[in-house]
Amino acid sequence: MASLTRGNVLPVPIATTPGGSPVKFRLTLIGALIASAVLAGCAGGSDDAPAAAAAGTTTLTPTRTIIMVWDGLRPDSVNATDTPNLYALRQSGVNFSDNHSTYPTFTMMNSSSFATGSFPKTSGFYGNTFWTPPQGSANTIPAGNGASGSAQDYQDPVFTEDYAVLATLNTYYGGQLLLVKSLFATAQAAGLTTATIGKSGAAYLQDLGQGGVFLDENTVQPRSLATELQNSGIALPANVVKNYSGADAVTLASSNGNPTARAGYITFNTTAYDPNGTLTVAARDSADTTQGAPEDAANKYMLSVYTQYILPKKKPMLSLIWFRTPDNVEHGYGPGTANMKAGLRSQDARLGELIAALRANGMDNSTNLVVVSDHGHSSVSGPLSLYPLRAITPSASLPNGTAVNGSTSGTSAASLGAVNANGYSFSGDVRSADLLTYRGFNAYDGSGCSTSAMYGLDANGNPTLPVKTDANGALCGTVNTKYQAISATKTSNPTARFTVPAPGSLPANGIVVAANGGSDYFYVPSHDAATVQNLVKVLQQREEYGAIFVDSRYGSIPGTLTMAQANLENGKRQNNGQPDVVVSFNWDADTSIQGMPGIEFESVGGQRGMHGSFGIADVHNTLIANGPSFQGGLTLTTPTGNVDVAPTVAYLLGLSMPQADGRVINEALVTPASKSQPNVAASTVSSSAASGLAFELPTDLTGATKDASLAAGTYTINMAVKDLSVDGKTYRYFDYAKAVRK
Ligand SMILES: [Zn+2]
């Protein structure tokens, strides 16, 4: 086809020869560029792209674009050894070196930013996990099943990485789960074919209106696609049978199997938390080098459906492919670990397969490939001065589990080792509902009795929060349940479960915590100002917490920023989904574990890696683009964000999204919408100071042990921002928000 745009081709996959010289590769690419320029003049429109504009005009040719999301990919994980295909793509395309994840830096928050080009102030979406408070005199809450077919609990905060949950919520919000028109809806309205593939929830949110082709780990849509795939001998996700019933029911072929089955993480047991040596806590064996990503087989299957069927048969002009890797291996084993790097290599092989498929279908010259991560990633850890790293002594034998889709699983015989500066973290977990309840609040997170190896071990091996056993079931509801909770030591009303009361039964000024990883949401349905002020003071005094954002309705509270200042306030969700307070857990960008800088506390979950904070390692994420619409060999240093991806891709498709908060990244494009030079001004937004505080060390959950090194008792927040002004509009990018205690 005659394209006005530069015909640079995508690099050949080189996953089979890792470590290839980038210089040599660039020369190869230049040769390919010349060849494609010749071909571009004579090739007929073999890929069904809309007709190009007449030569000599500056009208943009709508160009096929694929957005590939590598969940949790840190920019400093891209290199010639672990990600050779992506490294080559970055070298020959555009590297956006100052890209920003939307805060809170969760997967589903950024899924909504990719979908709408907007922040929650505009989209109204608060994933990953948010709470839908009972509404009206009937105390109405959503109702429906999850993707696995079982009833979803909406009394508790709900985890939104599930197409069926999102569909229920969309119905609950009257079809307005996203309050603005999405990129996919915009493309479909213009008659373009779209495809969405991959991770549960994150992929589905792109096409809530179900106007395109969709495949995730649980289902396919529309129903006719299930038949098409089966008629082509292609397996379906096993849970697809839960999506359709009656005349639409799907019967799986006997050979279907479970192509999206997930292998388990290898865990090991440590008795370190138990003074009596009789209890064990499962912890992930970060020293293991054999596992790779548990979703390798699922990702390979979903990509193969795309490359073998959807791409050649449907020829989508807009696609989004979202895979869990490397996020899953970062969560399970930690950034920088051997298994995390194994996950990077498998994900890069998927990119190689995608590029090969584009070439095989004659689409490589005419397709833009945008590789982006939803957020960065950090190691879960408290300060190493309080919680030194520890070795894990590897097991000599294989884990005891059965293999799933080719990956090992189960419990290994590895054991917890001694303090070791090159070791692994056993700290960083925080349970906000427990800390608040101990201090007299009525706080609930709906997570029940639980244990984690990540609450912290000091240098002498003393646990911050020992594991206990509920012998008679009084605390946990079932006899002999293990738990960890400081609130279980209260003399009156001891508790360890934090069950959210039934709709209509929340105590006056009760607080519901939506625990989310690197940030927590706090809902105060009474909107009682004193409760919010008291909550803020606890968060300021506990050193596990960082920057605090409070709904503007509570006025000026010392030592806080308003949620509006971080684009988190949405009037339509103010009493129905938007939290009253959002807090980032504390983070440290300079401390490294396994060679990767960036640590943070997390809501308890026993993870080795986490994101969601307002820290540098979580906010600064990966954005790389390559293809005919993008300049080549460019490192773009102007600030960009995940909210800019949708408006930019819309422009590449000949469309526009004027409702988006983000911008078209013109400075990366061959044919920009505007050639105006952006002006960038960096500044710091600071809160007022809270004073008279006594800071409490993370090692003592009772709060009795104060931090003698911070005697002034003042707390402020510094939020680093960059304002980019172009064509009469200003776009704000957030670099980080940091609590400053003195
Ligand atoms: Zn993610």
From TrEMBL:
GO terms for molecular function: hydrolase activity. Coiled coil: none annotated. The lineage of its organism: Bacteria, Pseudomonadati, Pseudomonadota, Betaproteobacteria, Burkholderiales. GO terms for cellular component: vacuole. Gene3D superfamilies: Alkaline Phosphatase, subunit A. This is Alkaline phosphatase family protein. InterPro entries: Alkaline_phosphatase_core_sf (IPR017850), Phosphodiest/P_Trfase (IPR002591). Signal peptide: none annotated.
